[in-house]
TrEMBL record, chains A, B, C, D, E, F, G, H:
Reaction equations catalysed: hydrogen sulfide + glycine + NAD(+) = ADP-5-ethyl-4-methylthiazole-2-carboxylate + nicotinamide + 3 H2O + H(+)
Amino acids binding NAD(+): 36, 55-56, 63, 127, 154-156, 219
GO biological process, one term: thiamine biosynthetic process
GN (gene name): thi4
GO molecular function: iron ion binding; pentosyltransferase activity
Protein name per the record: Thiamine thiazole synthase
Length: 254, 254, 254, 254, 254, 254, 254, 254
């Protein structure tokens, strides 16, 4: 068989075009590909929910690649160990209740799980704004290519519609802040000091629908609530992602 | 149980310190975490070879995350389809002999396979130089944290020893060029024009030991040989990585 | 009627997708949207040739927008006046044989003419490399989004096939230089000193096929030939574009 | 005839100097060369109003060149279709009521129409401030070369006088904000969330004189009013430009 | 004896790893390696207190290296002369009561004294946040490699625990400002105008515990108190460092 | 009398326009406003030669403003003292034969002298190329606004014609290098080591016509000749400027 | 006589050192070398007042070098014409009452006049802060080399004492703003819209002592007062400088 | 006693001015404040040689502050242990013959030793060129403030004379390269691959006078000789510095 460059290009264009058009309307859009966003998306996908994960960077995984201070290991506590097992991440017990995994493996296994669950990834994609129509709920996102902004160019965005949006953008709680800045009834209080114990336990309850159609998970949940900052431990993130998936599925009646 | 921040930090430091010290001497160092480097490392690991994958960026995966022109799909031809199967990557047949996979999934599954095979990842790590002692062969690498160079700081590197080195750095063939620049008997001819058909078939034969102790794979192999540039198709990359793993294992007597 | 954001996005995606796929194989690709490239493309289009104009910047028009030293006027000599008329550009006679037009109008009218002639524009698109297969001729282009490079990202390109390529990239003669750099039998001599009189008359004869499948026009033609630099006068550019269109059409048997 | 470089330079200097001096006093200054500014200027010019269009960038056209997310197509709804016809822009019906045009053609045809209507373009020109004398109305603009600011140099501006000013600067509503910042009786509320349906219909009524002598059009009109953000559809922009032209002409008694 | 590169690397890794782990819990963390921080750390070390000095830059010494306006000399008044003697810094009397030392020597001798007193230095380390648990006191620091931030990367930090923290970060009073920004009961008033006489005498009394567990010294002390700015004279800095050491030791019961 | 902003702007535009048009053809263009260029221009102007001084920066004066290492004083030796007197620069004798002047005053007095002699200054103007027609001599310059290049914009230049050109661009000998780069019969050897004594005496003889129509003066003269570098003393510069003026006037028959 | 490089360096160092030490205490420090600062300093110097002019840039002259929009001409009205005469600046009458001068000549002649009047210039010098002691008046300045800040280095400043300080820093009114920011009883209202007529006449009355020991002149005077912005006309600047000189001299009893 | 800001400033200026003038002529100038430069300067100072150490950065110490890969420890082998003892640096034996010291302490103690030996430090000082007069030997240096270059300003340098110059600029061998670039009879071969064993032993013999008046030490010695690169071990550096001091002293007859 002879390879043809044009067929290769056409294959890429046709396949991705179909995905783009299919996901112009989707059940759920998760913004941010860190641990809580990935866990949430993977678990929604497993329930058969149509879910798009939108990541502004080229690679998925957020801040987890670098472990703690570039030492690529992460720690997970007892409560979340079952999620490591669920996603196939290997680990070692350091002290009773403290499990250490490799950050690179954890990222890869979470992404792989989300892919296997049917999640569609849109990387290099920045959310510029949200769509709120007469019903007063977040009904879609205004998106653009990330490099357009990095290059300082002025190009108009496109829009995608979704029934539920999950803000998994970390410290910045970017979607929540957009709504606050435009006068939506929502206040982002910002993280307080670091206190791992408290932050890890409270993040679950702060994971909720904070504005009609908008859920928040992971560090973004604590940032919105003015809760303590989380330490270099990832159990709370994964559990928060799981909780967000549960709440969203409930909302969608799945 | 109460979470303790110091225990978390100590867990990360102790675990990664052990990895760092363990890998100061290793069988193989693969430089570059793109498709050919990942395939090579995964297949070496499966054979029980101690293998470190060194990547200068924060995330692993190289240029594959973005697919073609930011449309996150990749194409693989018939010959390499079995490797997609081997690494658990799902795909769709576009036309007979042209299989399309998602770039994000492909990256994640390749990393996951390498992790499962016992490969150790060192990301944010730049190779500054190579070590060549009296035997005239590449016997180790001079490494540093990538952010040190990005920040324009002057900090001395450390060294790691390895029996075999694999240059999987893509177009730039960075390790090969270092040796050429310092007067080693090696010429990097640079890629020629794009011609996918030819480049895909020739990359396998250009995958070889190009200097005592140094193997080359993927686009770097074609760049060293002055071969044609590869199109947006990844079969040749994966097959080249497989071949490099075979040659290295042979050299090591595994 | 109610406006729907998703329909709007789908309309844009579907329409442009069709154009992208249609132009994966085209008769002619003109690289560079300055005056000679625009004239060449417009005149080819008028002859019914399928022609894509690829421009790396966001806007089309090249260096003509700013006139001379930001005074947005251009001058055209007697010989090329008929082309101003042909494209509907208004002008004023300054001295016998020197016609002054507005640079903004000239750009707009040239683009409008090319559009009316059926030329398809691909802006924000950078040509990274050329495709040369066994027949030794330029048979296609390796293209990428411009912002990808501006943002310093590493994303693979796609390829488009074309029967004829026109290098209209100005001073830099970028396509010709790519071929020279990769060892093609072609030398880019670089512009000599400015001498408007000579440069304007010689540019026509330097407009030709300089490598199998590759034509050169405008300032790029003089740069390849080592000819004098053109003054702030645009007649030679337009006439060179006209000549390139003629030669390409002849080659294609139109 | 022999071409003379000095005559060419003199022609450019003399012609543009006349334009500069002529437009030191003009009926209308439109700030911003996007779709609403261009439509407004073209329609004013057609009524015989002396009109200068001031654009800070080198090229005219604003954000329209890139279509939606770099897919160079735009959508126009039924209500504004007659303006596409008026400016000679070709289009295709995608679904009933949704017309798709090429973004490059649309820009070029709008500029061409404005030129044909006698509008004078001043590109690379930044408005630094406005002139308000004893009568409390915007009576002129303080302008400078754009590259002076880009290069971080300190060079004093010049002034131009105009009877009416049109703020067509998009999201930023830059002229309106200047007046607000300096204590003028005017509040720029900023755009609300995206809601295409509402934004498109309301932009017409928000197009008005917002401060003595200052009119606002296009996205700037919605930004001043705190109205919803417009989707990737251009009918409202064109209709707003038409309305601004009508209001300004009325004010001038044309 | 034969030198082995791997042994060298292992020696560095092992020794520094032990220091890192040892100092995950320490009595005192001094933030900032300027004159007051160095004096404080040296004097605490001499009392047998376990003390870590954390400096964000590569080199220790802060703003003292450059003397005044790059003339590398510093002045110390009569009251602090005994500290120059204590640290072994040589000087010359310029006028009665004004002693001039070399800035380079002063930095080196202060660091040497701190080293001899057992202080451990962590350079290239940035404090990103503080740890405040249920007891409402600063109980630790959230730290990261400085180059990570300089390179614009997103990598998670680690934490260290300490009984007392000393903010010796100069003008910026960075630790105090972190606490203020997150709602701690603390106000950083900012330096007032320069008045050396007053600033030098008041800095001693402003050196104190400003928040449970947090002490402030040197310019940071004056910045928190809204006190006058210090002139190019270093006696007050050294005396403030001495006072901070005294207060901290007292608190620790040493 | 009432001040009118438009009259002010018109006055500036009209007056400078006349200068621009008048100097499209001039006897002499001096490139570079450092000491040798200023002295040359002033002395040519005094002889009644029409002379334009073109300076790429905003301010005139080159490297002289900063004296030596930002200590704003310059030294002139006995031989050139009469030129300080001629230009009205005050000085003090430091040791016999060494006269010290203020750098700021020296610049201002040299510019003032050139203005009084009728020299026309074109600042913020960059020479991009030279014009060489059939007679093989430098007959003009290709010029552009400096900020255009600083801002990375692409705008075409204009041309000015001149009978003689003086390269006073310092170390870089920029005009000479342009000619060398484009294949003119001229070699720029580059400065040798610093040796003030030799450099100061030789610069006079290296001041000459180095290419038909092109003279070189000051540091550029030594750079072309491969002569020693000049110390922080300005006598040679001024004497070289004087010599250049003499040679140019002779050539012009004045 | 033989030239000696060391003698040249010593001459520069010794002479400037004397100036630096002499001006550690001076009657007046004028901050900013634009037209009003230069006029003020020159006229104070003529009255025998010891005066230092401190300029942050390398060259003196501020924004005047570039004329209006890089057309290097300035306009002066009838009232200030006598100051052009006084400083020896040549001009042409454009219309009755509007005199046009060359911007380059005007700068040079103003500096020359200030030098002849004995003003000492300190260029490349940034004022970082002011000194206010127990008497509550500005009694000195905290200064540093400008390049230190441009290079992002941290080096301590030095101080100079002066009886009167003149803020001639233009739009920014930097000295006034420093005092406002640190809580001094002073409000900088910022410039209002441009209205040349009013701004030119009011600037004289706004020229005054605005804080004990601090006078304000030129655009800074209007910025402090919230007055209208001045047009591209320089009479008001010169007259304001003259008035500032008068007020300062009066204060000093000269 | 009352502190006076002006006295403080005067003290700094007077003291450093004396140092500057004293060192305009010196026995030895060592360029570069890394370990070999510091050791060389300290040992020369101990022999009573007048020695200036010139460092381009703000802090002294070069690349040693960061240890290996930001782990601030260094290793020294048996042969050089006596130099650690001589300079008072504490260390721990890691394995027989491998001594580990803290990098921060090592830098500080080396500087302190040099200060105690009477070495004068000139930091923030860049060597731009060398002085070579009729005798063909390096007789001095052309120096400038480092921030001037960092800020992209153009300010002339000053010169200092010295009998011997020591190039201790590390990898770059900057002084040797300056001489090579300007045609001096000297070739800088560049470092070869890393081989610690060989590099450490050969550096001593490569430490020598490489051009009349110019000695080379440390990594610069190996770079000039084309010798192997040194590992992260500092014994060779210190011994090379000791040897350079010996050779220089011999040359000077001390």
């Amino acid at each position: 068989m002879t390879l043809n460059e044009v067929t290769i290009s056409r294959a890429i264009l046709e396949e991705q075009h179909r995905a783009l058009v299919d996901y112009l309307e989707t059940d759920v859009a998760v913004i941010g590909g860190g641990p809580s966003g990935l866990a949430c998306a993977a678990l929604l996908g497993e329930r058969g929910v149509s879910c798009a994960l939108i990541e502004k960077k080229l690679s998925i995984g957020g801040g987890m690649w670098g472990g703690g201070m570039m030492f690529p290991r992460i720690v997970v506590q007892e409560e979340a160990r079952r999620l490591l097992d669920r996603f196939g991440v290997t680990y070692r017990e350091f002290e009773p209740g403290y499990y250490v995994a490799k950050s690179v493996e954890t990222v890869a296994k979470l992404i792989a799980a989300a892919c296997d669950a049917g999640v569609e990834f849109f990387n290099l994609t920045t959310v510029e704004d949200v769509m709120v129509r007469g019903d007063g709920r977040v009904g879609g996102l205004v998106v653009n290519w990330t490099p357009v902004g990095m290059a300082g160019l002025h190009v108009d965005p496109l829009t995608v519609a979704c029934t539920c949006t999950v803000d998994a953008t970390g410290h910045d709680a970017m979607i929540a802040r957009m709504i606050e800045r435009k006068g939506g009834n929502l206040q982002v209080k910002g993280e307080s000091f670091m206190w791992a114990e408290r932050a890890e336990s409270r993040v679950i309850e702060h994971t909720k629908e904070i504005f009609p159609g908008l859920f928040v998970t992971g560090m973004a949940a604590n940032a919105v609530a003015g809760e303590c900052r989380m330490g270099p431990i990832f159990g709370g993130m994964l559990l928060s992602g799981e909780r967000a998936a549960h709440l969203v599925a409930e909302k969608l009646g799945r």
